[in-house]
Amino acid sequence: MITHVGVRSDDTLRERSGSTRVAMKRLSEDQREAYLASGEWRGKAGGYSIQGRAGAFIPWISGSYSAVVGLPLAQTAQLLQSAGIPVWGAP
Predict the structure, then answer these.
(1) Is residue 76 part of a domain?
(2) pTM of full prediction above 0.85
């Protein structure tokens, strides 16, 4: 997946992109049916929620976990800081 985030401040647009790879194991028919029956997939980009039940189906990710959840936090904090907006806990 490719993630892109931007911050506009003082007529300047600061942007960052990143990619994250997610591996999902092959599911049995019973596992697929149980996940679909759970309804957790509803309203989720990609049809799954890595922080929910589907997390058990993901043996590894390469990249930003927070991007998979919905917002690449490290990149967003860097952009905010570069725009002069203080971010608690950011390097």
Answers:
(1) yes
(2) no
